[in-house]
Amino acid sequence: METTSNHPLLQPLHVGDLILSSRVIMSPMTRGRAKNGKNIPTAQAAVYYAQRASAGLIITEGTWINPESVGFANVPGIFSEEQKEGWKIITKAVHEQGGLIFLQLGHFGALAHPDYLNGELPIGPSNIKVNEIVFSPTGPKPSVIPREMSKGDITRTLNDFKLAAQNAKDAGFDGLEIHAQGKSLISQFLSDAINKRNDEYGGSIEGKSRFLFEVLDQVISVWGSKRVSVRLNPFLSYSGASGEPEDMLPTYEYVIRKLNDYDIAFLHVIDRAEQGTSEQELQNRMIYQKVSTWYSGHIVANGGLTLEKANELISEGLVSMASFGTKYIANPDLIYRFENNIELNEGDPSTYYMGDDAGYIDYPSISPVLN
Question: What is the pLDDT of residues 281-301, one digit of tens each?
Fold first, then answer.
């Protein structure tokens, strides 16, 4: 069988103080399997991640930093001792297979739901409703108007990010990623539509970015910068009172340029078509061309990539690595299939975010290492 290990994507890379066996990253993906009422990662999760340990690096599903950050059913946390012990089993399983694994830290902010919070309101940068459907324990519900975070809330949340970072270190992870790519607390602070604060955490682009960089400072104080990454979506926007999406690219340009002041492991950038975005509009964005001029460190591309497109972006010097989400759900042996030009399994979307072992740890592998 002809192999294609000369793919740029499959070459090793020195990232921070780690050596990755390839430039293939397993993207963070919510899977909703921690069905124990305590957001504890399960033994099945250890199987799931170990099956995929041949990735250059695994980044876990977004993981709650404290109880009030919870905003989706059956997603694990990293704020309790039981959760930490559950993650220890997972990191050990991945390391035994020769893999590397980062934990992604997340907080749903205004999109958490009172049903997860003993009836209390979620917190957000301002008391402005994010017009989204949220997944409560009893099913989809409209989001609610959050409580605006006080200075004390901000300080407490920053401390919880630091504690979560320490818990992740104690659990044996190789590093951390900060979840800022979806409609969660950090991106809510960045938003012109959602953040209407008139203190140092609002107003200007610099003010709205302050919370992100203070979170970054907290986790770096535990890990050092070389074991920390940040994941962003420069085209993420919220609808304000007008109902029109906001133009967030200037804010994200500022954030990305400022990240040059931090010697982080890498910047993880999503370029994914939102509803109503045409293929031509997506191509015209040229986001990696832009980001590569704004940021001097390692960039990871993400968003419906093929092997060919990932190779192209790396060959052109626009990114260093590429991450894959749904391809990794259905193909625990994705590296082997890339190496040998083997057709990929198709995933079952009905099992992506909820379910049991089916669609989670039962996808077939043809890699001799995994069989």
Answer: 767 778 999 999 999 999 999
Question: Token digits for 236?
Answer: 């993420």
Look up the domain containing 127 and give its range.
8-351
Distance CA 39, CA 371 (A): 30
Mean pLDDT across the chain: 93
How many of the other CB atoms lie within 10 Å of CB of 97?
15
SS (H, E, C) the chain: CCCCCCCHHHCCEEECCEEECCCEEECCCCCCCCCCCCCCCCHHHHHHHHHCCCCCEEEEEEEECCHHHCCCCCCCECCCHHHHHHHHHHHHHHHHCCCCEEEEEECCHHHCCHHHCCCCCCEECCCCCCCCEEEECCEEEECCCCEECCHHHHHHHHHHHHHHHHHHHHCCCCEEEEEECCCCHHHHHHCCCCCCCCCCCCCCHHHHHHHHHHHHHHHHHHHCHHHEEEEECCCCCCECCCCCECCCHHHHHHHHHHHHHCCCCEEEEECCCCCCCCHHHHHHHCHHHHHHHHCCCCEEEECCCCHHHHHHHHHCCCCCEEEECHHHHHCCCHHHHHHCCCCCCCCCHHHCCCCCCCCCCCCCCCCCCCC
Residue 14 lies in a domain: yes
Q: pLDDT class for 238, splitting at 50, 70, 90? A: confident
Q: How far is 169 from 175, CA to CA, in rounded Å?
A: 7
Q: Is residue 357 part of a domain?
A: no
Q: Between β-strands 13-15 and 18-20, what pairing exists: parallel, antiparallel or unpaired?
A: antiparallel
In a domain, 315, yes or no: yes
Burial 124-155 (b: 16+ CB within 10 A, else e): bbbebebeeebbbeeeeeebbebebbeeeebe
Tokens of 343: 């057709």
CATH code of the domain in which 324 resides: 3.20.20.70
